[in-house]
Design a protein that fits this description.
CATH architecture of the largest domain: 3-Layer(aba) Sandwich
Strand order of the largest sheet: 6-7-8-3-9-10-12-11
Low-confidence stretches: 326-334
Strand content: 15-25%
CATH topology of the largest domain: Rossmann fold
Order of helices and strands: EEEHEEHEHHHHHEHEHEEHHHEEH
Number of strands: 12
Distance between the termini: 35 Å
Oligomer: single chain
Helix content: 25-40%
CATH class of the largest domain: Alpha Beta
Number of domains: 2
Amino acid sequence: MAERLLDVTGLTTTFRTGKKTSVTAVNNVTFSLDRGEILGLVGESGCGKSVTSLSIMGLFEDTAGKVASGSIVFDGEDLTKLTTKQMRSIRGKRISMIFQNPMSSLNSCMRVEAQLIEAIRLHNDVSKSEARQRASKMLSAVGIPDPEQTLRSYPHQLSGGMSQRVMIAMALCCEPEMMIADEPTTALDVTIQAQILELMKDIRSRNNTSILLITHDLGVVAEMCSRALVMYAGRIVEEASVEELFASPIHPYTVGLIASVPKLGSGVTSLPSIPGSVPDLSAMPQGCKFAPRCKYAQAVCRQTEPELAPVPGGNGRKCRCHLFGKEEGKEAQA
């Protein structure tokens, strides 16, 4: 039986747009993560994936964002109840994060060694020389061939792949129990992407680290994850094992995402696409948020938002759609 590490329940995150107005970026999101599991969170840009990760990390201090309701229970402790000081003792040590753009996440005015040493000494009672030795060891562990040269470098002197490896080393330097990887392969060439993904799988195997992998790349999900959450307009619309998700997607949005992935040897000259775009947070449609883009939408879809409901016989699978299990839902899978 897998041991539960993270339980997110009813998470709702809002952003203040005026003195008395706000928009909801993440709406009533519930999911869990086991120890040693790699869980994929997928969807288009603007669906709330990164906001979900920032909510878990508690990174809305001095911003317009806040966790309005819900709980984020990490190893039995609700992170939403902790003070800023308490969160700082967890963030980076027990939960770490690889941000989407390593070139902007690293401080351009500081050498790599200063940034790694700072991260290590913040959570560990070690000398500067001991921290530097650990930093060098971590750079070697993430596949950097000349760690000493990299330590002396400034971020602008590194390639995108090297910068991403430095970010991973920084995320791992305190041996966290959980790592959030937000689009870790964005803007990297395919060879470097493969190396980064292989590195993350190796980290999970060696340390039993849990990974929440945020991406819009379904190929990455198929290769890396055991389960996946599909997110749209701040809501989870489908949850399933990766095998079930790719073999028989239920929600029309999931069907559209998977259909848009190019397949070698298919002979298809043009890929299908989902019409329209993710709705603006300040102008959410009534009913199902995907209804304006869904060719199977009916009157009930435009009037009432469906619940995220278990799929009968689905082994924990869930879907947020009025049509699943009906003829229209079957047609959507065809």
